[in-house]
Each structure stands twice: as C-alpha cells, then as structure tokens.
Write a structure and sequence with these properties.
With 314 residues, this protein is an alpha/beta fold. It has one domain: Histone deacetylase domain (Arginase, Chain A, 3-Layer(aba) Sandwich), CATH 3.40.800.20. Helices cover 34% and strands 15% of the residues. It has 9 helices and 11 strands. The strands form 2 sheets. The protein has a 9-stranded mixed beta sheet, sandwiched between helices. A two-stranded antiparallel sheet has the order 3-4. The chain starts with a strand and ends in a 10-residue tail after the last strand.
Amino acid sequence: MLFVGVDPCFADHDPGRGHPERPARLEAVHAGIDQAARDAGGETDALVTPLPPRDATTDEITRVHTRRHVERLEAVAEHGGGTIDPDTSMSAGSLPAAVRAAGAGLAAVDALTGTDGDGAFLALRPPGHHARPERAMGFCLLNNVAITAAALADRGDRVLIVDYDAHHGNGTQEIFYDDARVAYVSLHEWPLYPGTGRLDEIGANSGIGTTCNVPLPAGATGDLYLRTVDELVAPLAATQSTASNRPPTASNAAVHVPADVRASGPTHSRPPRPDADRTLSMRLAGCTSSSSSTVASRAGTRTSASSTPDRSSS
C-alpha cells in the first residue's frame, strides 16, 4: 500500500506570476502518479491511498523553528502576503498551505506506524529544506522534513535524512548540525546556491560525524548517486543503527520535479536511464530494515515507515 499526500490548499500558495515554484509543479507530479498507476496496470485509486489532511501544530513546528519565525510568517499572512526576500514570498494562502505541508510527513508517519503500508509519497508546496530555524529563504517557509524528523527523534528514533537535490539543504543541516539523533546526507551540485554543503561541514559537538555532504560537479550522473548511496549512505545508516541498537528512520528530503516544469537546475539531477531514480530510491530504502521508517520527498515528500527542497527543485 502506498499512501499519497496531496491537498488542494497547496495550490493556494502563490509566490507570484512567473515564479518557478508554482502550482504547475504539483500538476506534473499528479500526472506522474496517474501515469505510474497505468504503467502498473491499474487505476490510481486502486493502488494508492490518500493520507488524511493534517496541520502541524505550533509545538511541532517550534521543535525546529523559533516562535519568532512563526510570528513573522503570521504577520506577513495577516497582511495578505508579501515579499520575504528576492526569492521567497507569500500570498494570503501561503501560511495555511505551509502548515498543512509541514503536517503531511507527520500524517504519513501516523498512517504507516503499525500498518503494512509500503511507503508514502507526499506532493507538497511550499517546499522546505532551505528554511532555517529563524528564517524563510529559497522558496521555503517551514522545513517540512525537519519537522517530521524532529518528531521521530523525540519519540526515540534515530533518523537518517538523505537530501538529493540540485541545491544543498542548508536549513535542514543547520537544524540538526549538533544533534546526534539525526544524521543528514546531502548530494548537491557545487558550487551553487545557497553556498553551503562543503565536504568539511560534518556536524558539531555531539553531532560530529552525523552530517555528510557530497558536493558534485554539474553533469554528474545517476550512477555516481548510486555509488554514493552504497559507499557513504549505507555505512552511515549502519552506524546510526549500531548506535541505537535499532534501525534508523531514513528520510529523503529531496524534492524533484519533471524537467518540463523545472525552471532551472543542473544536469546532474537527471539520471542517465529511466529507472535510475527508482533504483536510487530502492537503495535508500535498503539502507534500513523493514522495521524502520522512511520519509522521502520529490516535489514534496515520499515516506515509507513501519515500526515506528533548491530554488528550482527544493
């Protein structure tokens, strides 16, 4: 069973005419889900189960963001929206959409805990991995995957986030940089926005060694991604499992959209063969046992669990 997180309110986030982070991204994702169902020889409704909508609470959001950050977003929303920085803006519907998107990963974990679900695919807007504890940036208002990861960590899970995207997830890294419960791996083009994600950024204090950045040149192929999963991600997942005597939760914070709606982005994000992205996802899932949870995102977040984004593609 595959759970899918979609919500009409995500289209209410309108960053402005001509902005690359636009509702058409999710329209392409929905079309892709339908096509995948047809390719599998069935109808979408028979193969996927919609997740119940769920907003993240203020307490869940403030595990990773400051109350001051939330209050700033609320203030912009009260005025009908506005510009936060040259890349990031809000409309009247942006904050409700962001709070719903932030709750989608939590809804997926709830749905998958104690069920025989195979995973969840969350098609979310606005994206999240650039959102820092006290700053919205890079199209991102709230850090969706971090909110889910923090909830899992607080309930005793150790979490692995694998972020494969054109741009480094600086917000997610910052949130967990000194938190040994959450390991963060990022595969991204270098040099590129936002300028973080160097090899020597490996965590701090008790979190030293739980941040692993893999900066790649433009044009790097999908085969290199697969090798990185085998040689870097899998050993780190094993370390997380050993440290806690239980398999880690694996979260993939990457957000990918089809090339036809991508405003920009490096060639390395396009795998060299049609099945490479699926193979990558399978290998990521294989980094943890069947008793672990997985949260991944492409144009949102895909999550698989049991026991327990980028300026153009964040």
